[in-house]
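Notes from the 1:1 (GR / supervisor)

We went over the backlog. Supervisor wanted to see one worked example end to end before approving the batch request, so GR pasted a single chain during the call. The sequence is below; no edits were made to it. Supervisor asked that the structure be written out right there so they could see what the output format looks like.
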Amino acid sequence: MNTRKWPIVGVLLALLWLFVRGVALDPMAILGEFVIGLGIGLSIAFIFRRFYTERTALARNVRAIPYATLYVGVFLKELLTANIDVAYRVLAPSMPIEPDVVVVPLRVQTDAAVTTIANSITLTPGTLTMDYDEEANVLYVHGITGRNREAVVEPIRTWEDYALVIFDEERKPGDPVPPVPEAPRAEGRADGGPNAGDADRPEEGGETDGE
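Structure output shown during the call:
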């Protein structure tokens, strides 16, 4: 059964409002912010209802609700633990901070799913989405513990499993993750000059000093 899409978009915007606000882990605070987000989201969705399809499959959206709830729950849990972890690292005398950039290939492909995951990463203390390569479908994530790649990627994969269902993606949870793309090898400088170290390298077939 198909139904009007703008009320569903309004509810999704209300959930997004919770992410933007970074609401405290308190049931009344979450409920209050959700009601505010619902008022704002429904208004925006109604005003801009002509910019997207009028109707959508209700059954698919109902099936996505439990996964959306799980997504929010896992995000709030990760938000709490990340706050504690960052506070510990900042206050610890040894300052165990090893920042680095992690390349995260994605299985989701729609703009809404990629944006939701990228925002979830940025809103979680200790991680920041730096860039998105649309061609390779990868996120570049800066992590306070970036050298520990698994610690950065693990929550992202959990969010992605739920997002695959929420946004009705082609791939499904449990599908293999694409490999990390290899960095392209530089062929030369932009100005046409040699790469670093090439100046001291003898040309093929040429003579070296002392021969």
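Supervisor's comment: The two ends are 84 Å apart (CA to CA).
Batch request approved.
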